[in-house]
Design brief:
Layout (H helix, E strand, L loop, with lengths): L1 E7 L3 H13 L5 E4 L42 E4 L8 H4 L1 H16 L8 E3 L5 H7 L3 E2 L3 E4 L1 H16 L3 E4 L4 E6 L4 E5 L3 E9 L6 H11 L3 E2 L2 E11 H11 L4 E4 L6 E8 L3 E7 L2 E7 L10 E11 L7 H16 L3 E4 H6 L5 H5 L10 E2 L8 H17 L9 E9 L3 E2 L12 E3 L10 H18 L1
The structure holds flavin-adenine dinucleotide.
């Protein structure tokens, strides 16, 4: 089977590159591969009753399949260069913003119409943060919500399926350099193409590393963010979330000078499990539909850890910590903030007396046995700092779920076209280590598609 372009991975990076290619050149023969299922078949088996925790499916429906890790994400498209990746270092800040805005336009014409665009510009809250040694990052954020995001993905799929060959449940095992072109090897078949876009996201991180090693593409990896997901009554943060939807707030700890940040805030949302390469960590999302809203808001508190040479395996470090929580709790652990401070584990009994009702069924335990002291100290300091701008954050019943780890894929060596040393082999999205978000991954897809269109 011979294609002009093969795209590996059907996350936002892959989807928006296919969209842009199809829109501008209907003659291109394009195929997309994903190890996960089509959108309608993606279903996490955890139902809260029969199955209450991760059963380690062969491919995780939260992370894999059409829509990638973005399918059941909260659909927060942050239009900013301040966070979400370093795409701007390759393509320039103006171009990066322009592409993120273009992706927003696509979303708005494919089912996202009527969703709200929040902005930190002119927010009073910035000043209040600064007065308390906290720093609010600049962004516009389009909140699609998990439900509207699903509609957008369905519409994009329906539009693409006429022009693109989709291969679901089809893991790409290997890429061979043919010079010219590439051979894409799956379990049962081989395909060739002139151009290959690799967009395998976080779930494809280990695979990506192996491929790069095999064909001699340089990689580097030295950062991981480790922390917890905080869950509080939605009222505590409503003055922030009503105005901004999500406040990305950064704090430098007094004790160690480490940076702690809030990440992925989900007003009236749910805390969920996430399975990356067999390790269960925690994440969160929320719905746009008001009937699906909960009484709680959740967000991650992450401490950034950058290592220096000779240590290279920052993701391995994060995984080892997450494994400890899996070992003690069989998955994610939950602990009340009051118990953390008193140095005691949370128990079923203590959880029952809590005023905050957890939205994820996690095992009550002791995060002090899991997280390194430096990270735990940073989280505690940040919770007290946030309590000054959102009183109630440091209440006894505030729930901390662990472990949340933000793995950074190793950064793959690509040039300003996001092309590797092999002509026509592009690596984009989270899988290339350059982006860490929906909007940046999508923008990288459009960018590469335009590069390819210029040559065809
Ligand atoms: C629960 C959750 C909530 C999130 N919320 C937000 C949010 O609100 N805002 C935000 O900006 N970001 C959010 N994110 C992160 C966001 O989803 C990612 O940054 C984004 O999806 C990255 O896009 P991508 O295309 O690079 O990779 P992915 O979306 O990870 O897609 C990669 C695809 O490649 C496939 N793949 C991997 N290896 C292979 C292989 N060898 N062969 C075939 N297929 C393969 C995978 O199955 C996957 O479908 C969230 C993530 C999760 C899990």
């Amino acid at each position: 089977m011979k294609y002009d372009v093969i795209i590996i991975g059907m996350g936002p990076g892959g989807i928006y590159s296919a969209y842009e290619l199809v829109r501008n050149n209907k003659k291109l023969k394009i195929a997309m591969f994903d190890e996960g299922h089509s959108l309608e078949k993606r279903k996490c088996p955890i139902d809260g009753e029969r199955i209450t925790s991760c059963i380690h499916c062969p491919t995780c429906s939260i992370m894999s399949g059409f829509g990638g890790a973005g399918a059941f994400s909260d659909g927060k498209y942050n239009i900013t260069n301040d966070f979400g990746g370093t795409l701007y270092q390759y393509i320039g800040k103006r171009k990066a913003l322009e592409l993120m805005e273009y992706v927003d336009e696509i979303n708005m014409t494919h089912g996202g119409e009527g969703t709200k665009l929040y902005s930190t510009a002119n927010s009073q809250f910035k000043k209040i943060c600064l007065q308390n040694d906290l720093h609010l990052l600049n962004a516009s954020v389009r909140h699609l919500g998990t439900d509207k995001n699903y509609v957008v993905l369905t519409n994009l799929y329906n539009e693409l399926k006429e022009k693109v060959d989709f291969y679901f449940d089809c893991k790409v095992e290997n890429i061979e350099i043919l010079n010219p072109g590439y051979k894409i090897i799956t379990k049962n078949q081989e395909y060739t193409c002139d151009t290959c876009i690799v967009s395998v996201g976080r779930s494809g991180s280990k695979w990506m590393e192996k491929i790069c090693e095999g064909i001699g593409i340089k990689t580097k990896s030295n950062r991981v963010d480790i922390g917890v997901r905080v869950e509080i009554p939605a009222e505590v943060f409503s003055h922030v979330t009503d105005e901004l939807y999500e406040g990305k707030i950064v704090y430098r700890t007094q004790k160690y000078g480490d940076f702690v940040r809030t990440f992925c805030m989900n007003p009236y949302g749910e805390v969920v499990n996430e399975n990356t390469n067999g390790i269960v960590t925690v994440n969160g999302h929320s719905y746009e539909d008001s009937s699906k809203k909960t009484n709680n808001t959740n967000f991650a508190l992450l401490v950034s850890k950058e290592f220096s040479e000779p240590f290279k395996d920052s993701n391995g470090y994060g995984e080892s910590i997450a494994r400890l929580s899996n070992m003690l709790g069989g998955g994610v652990l939950v602990q009340r903030f009051g118990d953390v401070i008193r140095g005691q584990r949370s128990t079923e009994e203590r959880m029952k007396s809590s005023f905050v009702v957890p939205t994820l069924n996690a095992t009550p335990g002791d995060l002090n046995l899991v997280l390194p002291k430096r990270i735990m100290d940073g989280i505690i300091e940040m919770i007290y700092a946030l309590d000054k701008i959102a009183p109630g954050t440091a209440n006894d019943d505030t729930l901390l779920y662990g472990v949340e780890v933000k793995f950074y894929n190793m950064e793959v060596q690509v040039d300003k076209h996001l092309e590797t040393k092999y002509k026509g082999l592009y690596i984009i999205g989270d899988g290339g280590g350059i982006t860490h978000s929906l909007s940046h991954a999508s923008a990288s897809g459009v960018y590469v598609a335009r590069e390819i269109l210029e040559k065809n």
